[in-house]
Amino acid sequence: MSAANQLYQEVILDHNRKPRNWGKLDDASRHAEGLNPLCGDHIWVYLKLNDKRIEGISFEGQSCAICKASASMMTHAVKGKSIDEALTLGQEFRDMSTGKLDPQSGDHHLGRLTVFAGVRDLPTRVKCAILPWHTLHSAIHSIEQVSTEGEADPVPGAGLERTDHA
Amino acid sequence: MSKAVAATQGASRADDLGFDVERVREDFPILRLKVNDKPLVFLDNAASSQMPQQVIDRYVKYRTSEHANIHRGVHYLSEVATREYEAVRGKVRGLLNAREEREIVYTSGTTESINLVAHGYGRKFIGAGDEIILSVLEHHSNIVPWQMLAEEKGARIRVVPCDDAGELLVEEYRKLFSPRTRFVGLTHVSNALGTVNPVKEMVAIAHAHGVPVLLDGAQAAPHLGVDVQDLDCDFYAFSGHKMCGPTGVGILYGKAEHLQAMQPFKGGGDMILSVTFEKTVYADIPHKFEAGTPPIAEVIGLGAAIDYLQAIGLGAIKAHEDELLRYATDRVGAIEGVRLIGTAGHKAAVLSFEVEGVHPHDVGTLLNEDAVAVRTGHHCAQPVMQRFGVPATARASFAFYNTLQEVDVLVDAIRKVQKVFAG
To answer: Which residues contact B325 (CB under 8 A, 6 or more apart)?
Structure first.
């Protein structure tokens, strides 16, 4: 099966059609905006943090199926987790998407997120899958806007201005 | 009988002009490529076109037996390189029907051509409170240089709107002129939609106000016959790599009196008459804009591309591309759940479309499964995307070496995308 056919399978198409945790979070304590200029992906991630734990999370925006499904599954995966656990998961997801982490190895916490493993063979789409995780990282650190322009695996929020917490 | 065969029945104009697409395709080695074990269907020509063997051979011949720096040595190779390099100016003059060869400036591409005018002309003649008219259909390369200038000088940009078909509203354009209008920048053909703008009429309107006009011809030069004297434009910019030539070379045509009045943009060698620390005297046009060692092989390659296109005949090329556009518009437009974006009456062979419920980037990735190469994204024309309320589109752009059968492959591939997403 080709890389693209492997990626556009039911689980991803389903999250694209019916994204989980979609919309604004009314009592969000932080949020961040993510942009992928190549694709036109444009998403917002809203967070409600409580004692270093992600109590609530949602997202919205306009994006391709890979980005939307990735965001949907991300919100599902990190809800209820500690900030440190979420950041570790984000790092593992980035490593898997760029081929640095072998999802078969078992030495990770990715679970169902391994359906995105195929994206490593579609270099132009890696950014789409990673954007939600960058945006989550920025929301956690309260960096208002991130962009994946010009970088395959950018350092999240590097060089961007920090803003006050909401 | 396939639909493509049915559509070709009865002699088309391209056939009348002796055009044989299968024979032409043999000139392009890359078209024999297989992607995902399927024959490549290259429909991203508006981004960059492919090179025929004749251009590749010319390039290799230069690299193999003609290379030296130009305008410098008195030795054999320098003379050969200089002669071949300068001879291309004459070919470009002929292609555009410019009055004189010195009105042809070599640049690195359309973007540099426009930046050269923004710096060389704009910074000298546009000041605080002045106005620059651009259209909503411009590529970013004909927006950003003017915005940078406007910001530096305190000038203002005014925008010509378009209708739902993607045609510029000429009456609105007329109303934008004021006593402060100093410059007009217009695209000849929209890269995102394919609209061929009525630039001759628009140039005349600007000239009635005494305002010069730059035309961005990146998408026009490869597909239409361009006559700068007939259009009466003041500047015309285009790129080599969109017309079967190499990347890294482009052209700025400018009326001699404008070029003479302009400041050079880059300083350095080969653009001077004499240099002392007290004063430098610039070379005459066009060399005053060509500082440094230029892309010599690329210029010579562009010359070969012009020879190649002219040997096929720009009329035959246009007739075949018109037929491709008609056929693709009918077939892609007939797919349920597909919306065509850009339906102007006069178009170049560009088909922007949206597949309902599927992001263009997903469309592009899945079309690639069938070896169909299209561009997806905002096409460096975000104002166009905003105008049509879409984040991006998928765009099939045709060249004369594309076939009606390839349109059929595109249509089948789009249907497959819909099937994947229908779940």
So the answer is: B194, B347, B348, B349, B350, B351, B398
